[in-house]
Amino acid sequence: MGLLDRVQYASDPDRYEYRLTAAGRELFGAIVVLMRWGDTHLAGPEGPPIVLTHRTCGEVTHPRLTCDVCGEEITIHSVTPSRGPGFLEADPAPPEDPARSERNS
């Protein structure tokens, strides 16, 4: 499961292009969030090097994370992390070796 597929689009000579896989396309949100962070913290006085224009309204957009249930913006202060269904408990500490305890006494 990679992020890109190599697809031949011409031969003689062979030429290839790289297309995003489904996993690659799912990274779009993470990439936009990182891009926005860079725009805030690293862009010069000229502004960001790349902007995103929303095709529906034609305006430059500033994407944000929102809750898929209520639509409210998600911030560091509006979410609480908790264990999900895939959470695995850590292995318990191995029992102490009685011989080792006696040596350390």
Automatic annotation (TrEMBL):
GO molecular function, one term: DNA binding
Entry protein name: HTH hxlR-type domain-containing protein
Segments for region (Disordered): 80-105
Gene3D superfamilies on file: Winged helix-like DNA-binding domain superfamily/Winged helix DNA-binding domain
UniProt domain HTH hxlR-type: residue ranges: 1-46
InterPro entries reported for this sequence: HTH_HxlR, WH-like_DNA-bd_sf, WH_DNA-bd_sf
Superkingdom as given in the UniProt entry: Bacteria
